[in-house]
Amino acid sequence: MMKKTLAVIFSVLVLSTVLSGCNTTRGVGQDISAGGSAISGAATKAQN
Fold first, then answer.
1. I want to staple 14 with a disulfide (CB 3.0 to 4.6 A). Which of 2, 23, 32, 38 is the partner?
2. Which residues contact 32 (CB under 8 A, 6 or more apart)?
3. Average pLDDT for residues 3-12, to the nearest whole number?
4. pTM confidence score
């Protein structure tokens, strides 16, 4: 339970950091993709 909570908090922090750096429409797509990868990685770590 604790790992899952930490993973969610970490994911939100990473996503907010990535999205704050968006300057163009193309950049938004790249940042969202990177955020999704970060969330996926955090979820995988939480399962292990």
1. 38
2. 18, 19
3. 88
4. 0.42
